[in-house]
Give the backbone structure.
Amino acid sequence: MQKISPHLWFDKEAREASEFYTSIFKDSRIKNTTTLHNTPSGSVDLVAIELAGQEFSLISAGPFFKFNPSVSFLVACKTKDEVDALWKKLSERGTALLELGEYPFSERYGWTQDRYGLSWQVMFAGGREIKQKITPTLMFVGDVSGKTEEAINFYASVFRKSKVGDILRYAKDQKPDKEGTVKQAAFTLEGQDFAAMDSAREHKFAFNEAISFMVHCDTQEEIDHYWGKLSAVPGAEQCGWLKDKYGLSWQVVPSILGEMLSDKDPKRIARVTEAVLKSKKFDIEALKKAYRD
């Protein structure tokens, strides 16, 4: 299992979106779909998918959170034709943030919000080897603008198999961004590639729960470790969710939870759901007990 996977919160479109995304990316599939009942949001759809071989989770749980460009997904393409084809599908009924065209950093690139509001950057890789097709990209804005370098060093200290890669910095004449802050940075957590940037421009958005990152843990010791290191907002702790000191949302979950919630026995699912709803930090033994009893 992928150690860290993006989790996308929809109002009621998770099933529809999962079909849309898996239809436009190669090597993609819907892995599992489950409906949970009697939650604070009523009946909730959970969908697990793979896009270009990478794991994503989608949930339909009400109109509480909206996607915004503080987290986007950078798609590396082998050809300009592939960029154009993906752009056409992702931008349909969406909103272009940077129009498709030629830029100093890429001969073919565009940034769009799709029909659901999710942000995608589609870029021609220019002959570079593509090791990871889709790279989550974090934009630090508002109160956390200028803290990208601090944040990615922090994340690299929390997760194993991690490193901070190349950092491109803003120059003196690139105001409103402060000289030396991060224009673009690459970093790796648990062997997975991420990117990040600062933006001091005025934005009417920030990190929120619409996009969180699930950390899949095999042991209680792992859960305790990541929870203790990442959680910085006690009021945000609920059902395995937390917020870190930069406002980014994470879910620290047992690896076995997905299997439990996809069980064929609705009574088992109901018991596990009840145990999840009562939890802040997950207790693996308590979830196992709910599953058994």
